[in-house]
Amino acid sequence: MPSPVMGESEDIPGLGQYDDFQTIDWQRDLARDRMRHRYIVKHKKDSVWDFIKAAHDAWSGWMCLFLVGLVAGTVASIVDIGTTWMTDLKYGICPGAFWLDREQCCWSSNQTAFGLDNCSQWLTWPRLVGVTDESAGGYIIAYISYVLWALSFASLAAILVRMFAPYASGGAIPEIKTILSGFIIRGFLGKWTLLVKSIGIMLSAAAGLSLGKEGPMVHITVCIGNILSYLFPKYGRNEAKKREILSAAAASGVSVAFGAPIGGVLFSLEEVSYYFPMKTLWRSFFCALIAAFVVRSIDPYGNEHSVLFYVEYSKPWIFFELLPFILLGAIGGLIGTVFIRANIWWSRYRKQSRIGQYPVTEVFVVTLINAVVSYPNPYTRMSSTRLIYLLFSQCGVANTDYLCDYNRNYTNVNGAIESAAAGTGVYTALALLFLALAFKIVMTIFTIGIKVPAGLYIPSLCMGAIVGRIVGIAMEQWAYHYPQFWAFRGECSTGDDCITPGLYAMVGAAAVLGGVTRMTVALVVIMFELTGGVRYIVPLMAAAMASKWVGDAFGKDGIYDAHIALNGYPFLDNKEEFDCTTIAADVMQPRGKAPLTVLTQDSMTLREVVSILENTKHNAFPVVISRESHFLVGCVLRRDLLLAIGSVRRKQDDISDDSLVIFNGALQGNASASSPVKLRRILDLAPITVTDHTPMETVIDMFRKLGLRHVLVTHNGRLLGIMTKKDVMLHMSHHQRTIPSVFH
């Protein structure tokens, strides 16, 4: 454990903080917080001011997360409203009030019927120039307008990211997982990233690219949590404690993106968080609740349910349908595996080729291809969220889409929907959906990774919903044409429509998203919160498990872990198992007869210490009794040593290069006229140590569960070497490469 004195050294500015691209010391930061808390509790009865400080300390976490939820809900609502307006701008404008989207424009004119196509207040671009939509000229004008608006939105998003916030691109979930595991990436959660990400995700989603705004929404809320944590020094000055706020903020991101507060908490627990104590679970729930309440109050979806894809049906499913649900899960696992491998291959190629040097050009080309190819197909022309909602929906009287072109006679609007044969429109829709599926898979592979804000939740849900709807229509027609088949005999013999294709779309969406991310529990909860379909938990669970099993058979990593490995982030997954026979002596540095860089407790001059700092890049230095006797005394961090030496030189005039540096013990006769440099306060007298024969399985568990930066390796108390997190990760990577997999 760190030295207690270390937590009291507030007179050295910057002590206890970290440089960019460094791993935090969880044990030291948590120990500092415990000492600070004990001091506050001990003195809270000394005065009224101390009592107020103690009360503020107790409530600061809840207050911080209340503010995070409040701001997150507001920002998410603005993003949703802005995205809808920009998306509709590709098709037309409301001349009387240009700031209104299509639906609001028609509602403002009291034309609240279902047929928004007949709204006189909303003018498409062809009608604005005096051409009818049905004419060839009207189609060409609409086509060109769609492409130009898409190029404008996407290019502007790419330029904003390139000029002001490079970290604002992508979905950022892999980076957030790495940050929550204890890695420092300065600027990744800053105010410029927040601003550009919020504007950029509206632009890129409105451009019609095959991406979603839900992953970036998690990044946005974590940025909000990081910025607001600095209002509370308990969290702003302690990186380990700050990650409690960031974990809760991640939960609010899913809450506002999908209207799924419970799913958000489980997402943070299952997918992104590294350190998740019970109090963080409660606070995550509270933060997600506040954020969901704000979104519900603003109601950006306009459906009064505060969820994205609310479904109206609640027809029970047949037991036999578990088989196609499991089949959909298997298909989702296969699609997820293909997508992960293709996207990682393209991302690696992008990094290694000249394509990565022209990010704005790449965005322009991808958007141009996407817009030109997607417009002729109505299912790729519409936004992905509208397509998912259409695929989830049940056919009724008001549905005029090809998907609902059944040979039905609606004699009773409020009665049960009878089963019927599919009309020609349904088969046309199926052909278009097959084309849309192929297009979505290909374009998503090339889109995820370009330099605009981009999430993969909505594209994954969209691909799965298409597959599910196709399977659902096939099952529906099977039940119609063969109602006496043993599986349908009871439920489908009444003439009512016993198969719900929209349910298959919902299950398929969960299956593909599970295949891509490898989530299970959080995925099921998000899906039933997303749709309001609580009755369908079992089908969703069956599909999620089948998807994960099939996906894991071809590779354990989901898309986030695959991108972490691709980018080389120092992330040790505490959920994975590692089996090896090596010991600490095989991995520690230095190896062989190479010298070990150490500091002595009381016999080195300041010149010698500074020389070691200048000639090495190590982040930590063991302190031993003497050069002859390598018995371990403690450990000191490079950054703390630099700060302490700089502070001593500023405060003491009688310090020279010949001054002795005293880390521990008393001064034994000083031949130099200069005063000694006493640095006991920065010495960790209880560093984590292992013996040279400690199994690496145990060492890896220590790094994972204690969040260590390094351990010292000893033999009978004598220092032999040091092992850093980087050494452990390189060893694990080398070990996994040398073991052949049965599936590869």
TrEMBL record:
<comment type="similarity">
    <text>Belongs to the chloride channel (TC 2.A.49) family.</text>
</comment>
<dbReference type="Pfam" id="PF00654">
    <property type="entry name" value="Voltage_CLC"/>
</dbReference>
<keyword id="KW-0813">Transport</keyword>
<feature type="domain" description="CBS">
    <location>
        <begin position="588"/>
        <end position="655"/>
    </location>
</feature>
<feature type="transmembrane region" description="Helical">
    <location>
        <begin position="59"/>
        <end position="79"/>
    </location>
</feature>
<feature type="transmembrane region" description="Helical">
    <location>
        <begin position="318"/>
        <end position="340"/>
    </location>
</feature>
<keyword id="KW-0129">CBS domain</keyword>
<dbReference type="Pfam" id="PF00571">
    <property type="entry name" value="CBS"/>
</dbReference>
<feature type="transmembrane region" description="Helical">
    <location>
        <begin position="140"/>
        <end position="161"/>
    </location>
</feature>
<keyword id="KW-0472">Membrane</keyword>
<protein>
    <recommendedName>
        <fullName>Chloride channel protein</fullName>
    </recommendedName>
</protein>
<feature type="domain" description="CBS">
    <location>
        <begin position="679"/>
        <end position="739"/>
    </location>
</feature>
<feature type="transmembrane region" description="Helical">
    <location>
        <begin position="245"/>
        <end position="269"/>
    </location>
</feature>
<feature type="transmembrane region" description="Helical">
    <location>
        <begin position="424"/>
        <end position="442"/>
    </location>
</feature>
<dbReference type="InterPro" id="IPR046342">
    <property type="entry name" value="CBS_dom_sf"/>
</dbReference>
<feature type="transmembrane region" description="Helical">
    <location>
        <begin position="217"/>
        <end position="233"/>
    </location>
</feature>
<keyword id="KW-0406">Ion transport</keyword>
<dbReference type="InterPro" id="IPR014743">
    <property type="entry name" value="Cl-channel_core"/>
</dbReference>
<feature type="transmembrane region" description="Helical">
    <location>
        <begin position="355"/>
        <end position="375"/>
    </location>
</feature>
<dbReference type="InterPro" id="IPR001807">
    <property type="entry name" value="ClC"/>
</dbReference>
<feature type="transmembrane region" description="Helical">
    <location>
        <begin position="503"/>
        <end position="528"/>
    </location>
</feature>
<feature type="transmembrane region" description="Helical">
    <location>
        <begin position="454"/>
        <end position="475"/>
    </location>
</feature>
<feature type="transmembrane region" description="Helical">
    <location>
        <begin position="194"/>
        <end position="211"/>
    </location>
</feature>
<keyword id="KW-1133">Transmembrane helix</keyword>
<keyword id="KW-0812">Transmembrane</keyword>
<keyword id="KW-0868">Chloride</keyword>
<dbReference type="InterPro" id="IPR000644">
    <property type="entry name" value="CBS_dom"/>
</dbReference>
